[in-house]
Design a protein that fits this description.
It contains 23 helices and 27 strands. The chain is α+β, with helices and mostly antiparallel strands.
Length: 836
């Protein structure tokens, strides 16, 4: 059977026929040329060689290129943003300025400026602009060229360089860039490429991306930029560290105006708009540090905890502090923090008084030259009143000059004898120059905590974190002195004692060994007194007696349970505060007293969100059953459970707190009395004295402070917790008076308030407290069935007789080692590292 010539062939047969016919003709032509022409054979061989070389080069260049698919999931490294308790931004942890925006957030004018400056054919090419590349090759081969060849890199190629290749300058890098650009165009849309580019491009002043640069150069968001400002940002990719510098204004304006001309040529703006924009000055703002709350010690503690939890850099995980873009809500109360900072500073300056200059903050070797740069790179500064940090640039006799990190110099007065050139010092303005100021040598710390939740609202760990980043609130291990006593008394209350239990304050005897035998130390006021008296007046002998009767093992257990000290020794000196602790730990323990014995771990972070807003960590882990129900079922509103751990009997905690109110109203902390608040608290003074303390507050807020030298030494015989530390807390409360509640503390279930005679501790039925802190009758808190008997006239006579007899015996025995209240030396405590 034959096929009719008019019948068309099937498509597959037709193309097979055409290919056979055409290839046959081409093959014959090639064979004929190959036989007849030597030049043709040479050209063909060169062509084959060129193709082979090209393919080999392509395989070599493409063999180790990074995968472009990862750009689809690429996350811009972003800083961590920190918010305070009110939700306002207070700080960011950033080594670079970065802000990520979506493509729709970029104003059209800004996008058009970048297209005009960098890649006007961006939306039409496939990743490589061959015309621009050819021009770049010509410029590269030009022997008169200075610096890098210009042109040739599209926005896609620049993105490949920024994210995948690095900034090596070579022909091979350019070829790799072109290959990657083509690949990027296959996995990302044009809008996605522009979004990545505008978020990642380095633009100087440590800023990456146009939003960060807009803030750095104009202190504006990109949506608020004017035309001339958008054009300026578009010139920065060519020289990110040049055009924003002083002295480069003319070059920057010339380049900006070129971009404006390109925008007009591309039809993005009119001639009138171009002329108006070109007439504007650059309008750059001075480079400034990022705004931050003056809470360096608090914020550094937050940073430390975040790094411990999530890591520091991108290599440590997707939620790292310096790349993860975390949003952190902290418990920082900026009003309380400001008040705490200033109260502690004033207290330190007040204590330093007229002691004279304490020496330089640091020293600089002026012989190395460029003292201004050395000072700037030291990052030492101060934010107190109108003080500044400078370096003494010269001194001759009674005259000297001071220099600052910006190169400014001025005359210096109020010169200490020891001042010399190279000293880094604090100064304040005076006349046409500056005077030397003294940074207090003594340091200290102040912490404020919400007693009900454990949230730390304020933390000041020294005079200024710019001068010393050592956080004395959390890192300084100090002896707490008498501030430990409430927990000794709590142990006594848990072991059968009551606030009215009579404790001997006459003497305490202890065995020193076979050779020395027994030694006895006399109390501050001889006789038997109610437990309350011993705590209010900080009586050492009574405290040791209570600790020994309750069992020092039990006292140690109380101290450990409340987190005051990790491994205290069961010695008598421990009951007087010989073990070391921190202000933060003491404030936490006192918060448990105010919180009916429930102990909350102190926290500075409330919760952490990732860059998309998902909560990835929270401090409060209490479940809330029913909080996420789809529809309200009409049942009682779901509520969180009670926060914290019951670390001590609620009734005991209230009894101790109630007795500590007496320490404020008539004891060692009466300096706080004028505040007329229901305050409780305890002062502390260590042997020497080397440290002075006060810890206390209300049932809602608890604050603590200490003052002492970093290398402990004697502070002077007049230094007491009641005269130095307590006034700091008073100053702090006065600044924030409206934040402190006047509401009296609420007693837990099982507490009975009974009228007692303050001096004897006996029950009173025929009188009432009159409000006078030193009145004879007071309210006392008792557990059920522990109330004291009624006082009688015979009791009063007997007590007076015992007191007189004790005084007579003391007079006959003569002076002996004294173990009185706070501020009096006791030998046995000193021998065991103790304090008073």
């Amino acid at each position: 059977m034959t096929r009719d010539q008019d019948t068309p062939l099937p498509p597959l047969d037709y193309w097979r026929y055409r290919l056979s016919r055409d290839l046959s003709g081409a093959t014959q032509w090639f064979a004929e040329k190959w036989r007849s022409s030597t030049l043709f054979r040479l050209a063909a061989a060169l062509a084959v060689l060129a193709v082979a070389v090209w393919m080999a080069a392509w395989l070599w260049l493409a063999s180790d290129l990074p995968e472009t698919d990862r750009l689809v999931e690429y996350e811009t490294p972003l800083p961590t943003v920190v918010r305070g308790a009110d939700g306002e931004i207070v700080h960011s942890y950033a080594r670079e300025r970065r802000v990520q925006l979506q493509y729709g957030d970029f104003p059209d004018l800004l996008v058009e400026a970048y297209l005009s400056a960098e890649d006007k054919t961006f939306f039409s090419h496939g990743g490589v602009d061959f015309t621009g590349t050819a021009n770049a090759v010509i410029d590269y081969l030009n022997p008169a060229r200075e610096g890098r060849a210009v042109g040739g890199s599209t926005i896609t190629q620049q993105l490949a360089k920024i994210l995948l290749l690095g900034d090596e300058y070579s022909v091979t890098r350019k070829l790799k860039e072109m290959i990657l650009a083509s690949r990027i165009e296959n996995v990302l849309s044009k809008e996605e490429i522009l979004e990545l580019y505008l978020n990642e491009i380095p633009l100087g002043r440590r800023s990456f991306g146009v939003q960060a640069a807009s803030r750095a150069y104009f202190d504006k968001d990109v949506g608020d930029l004017d035309l001339h400002e958008a054009a300026f940002l578009a010139i920065l990719p060519k020289a990110p560290e040049r055009y924003g510098r002083k002295g480069q204004e003319e070059a920057a304006i010339a380049r900006r105006d070129f971009v404006l001309e390109q925008m007009e040529e591309n039809g993005f703006i009119t001639e009138e708009q171009r002329r108006a924009a070109a007439a504007e000055p650059l309008g750059l703002v001075r480079q400034r540090n990022q705004q931050s709350a003056d809470a360096g010690y608090f914020l550094e503690e937050v940073r430390r905890q975040l790094i411990e939890q999530f890591g520091e850099t991108a290599e440590d995980g997707e939620n790292s502090v310096y790349a993860g873009g975390l949003w952190v809500r902290t418990s920082l109360d900026t009003q309380m923090q400001d008040a705490a900072r200033e109260a502690l500073r004033r207290g330190l300056v007040r204590y330093h008084g007229g002691r004279g200059w304490s020496g330089p903050i640091a020293t600089i070797d002026l012989s190395e030259g460029n003292w201004a740069s050395q000072l700037a790179s030291s990052f030492i500064s101060v934010n107190y009143e109108d003080w500044r940090v400078g370096v003494v640039t010269g001194r001759e006799g009674g005259s000297a000059t001071v220099g600052f990190s910006d190169g400014e110099e001025a005359p210096l007065s109020n010169l200490p004898n020891a001042l010399k050139a190279g000293d880094v010092i604090a100064v304040s303005p005076q006349g046409n120059g500056f005077r030397v100021e003294t940074v207090p040598e003594a340091q200290g710390a102040l912490v404020l905590q919400d007693a009900q939740t454990g949230r730390v609202l304020a933390m000041q760990g020294g005079f200024d974190h710019r001068l010393s980043d050592f956080n004395r609130a959390t890192q300084a291990m100090r002896q707490p002195g008498s501030t430990i006593k409430p927990f000794v008394y709590a142990t006594g209350l848990d072991n059968g004692m009551t606030p009215s239990t009579q404790i001997d304050n006459t003497q305490y005897c202890y065995y020193q060994g076979r050779q020395l035998g027994q030694k006895c130390i006399r109390g501050g006021r001889a006789g038997q007194f109610p437990m309350r008296y011993g705590l209010e007046q900080s009586q050492n002998i009574m405290t040791v007696q209570i600790g020994m009767q309750a069992g020092m093992d039990n006292v140690v257990e109380t101290i450990e349970t409340l987190g005051i000290s990790d491994d205290p020794d069961p010695y008598a000196a421990t009951s007087l505060g010989s073990e070391e602790t921190t202000v933060a730990r003491m404030v936490s323990a006192y918060s448990a007293l105010a919180n009916h014995g429930r102990l909350n771990d102190p926290t500075v972070i409330d919760f952490v969100q990732d860059r998309r807003g998902k909560v990835i960590w929270r401090a409060d882990q209490r479940p809330c059953n029913g909080c996420n129900m789809a529809e309200y079922d009409g049942s009682p509103m779901p509520r969180f459970g009670i926060k914290g751990v019951q670390a001590m009997d609620a009734r005991t905690a209230f009894q101790v707190m109630h007795m500590l109110e007496g320490a404020v109203s008539r004891g060692t902390a009466t300096v706080l009395n004028p505040l007329e608040l229901p305050l409780f608290g305890k002062t502390g003074t260590t042997t020497g004295p080397k440290d002075v303390w006060f810890v206390g507050g209300t049932q809602r807020l608890v604050a603590g402070a200490y003052v002492g030298f970093d290398n402990p030494r004697n502070m002077g015989g007049y230094a007491y917790g009641g005269t130095i530390a307590a006034p700091i807390i008073k100053d702090f409360i006065e600044q924030t008076r409206e934040r402190w509640s006047d509401t009296p503390p609420i007693a837990p279930e099982g507490i009975r308030m009974v009228r007692v005679d303050r001096r004897s501790g006996k029950r009173v039925l025929d009188g009432w407290p009159d409000g006078d802190p030193r009145g004879a009758i007071i309210w006392e808190a008792f557990k059920p069935d522990t109330e004291p008997d009624r006082a009688t006239r015979q009791d009063a006579i007997a007590a007076k007789r015992d007191e007189i007899l004790t005084l007579i015996r003391a007079g006959r025995e003569g002076p002996r080692a004294n173990a009185g209240g706070e501020g009096e030396v006791i030998n046995f405590a000193e021998e065991q590292g103790g304090i008073y």
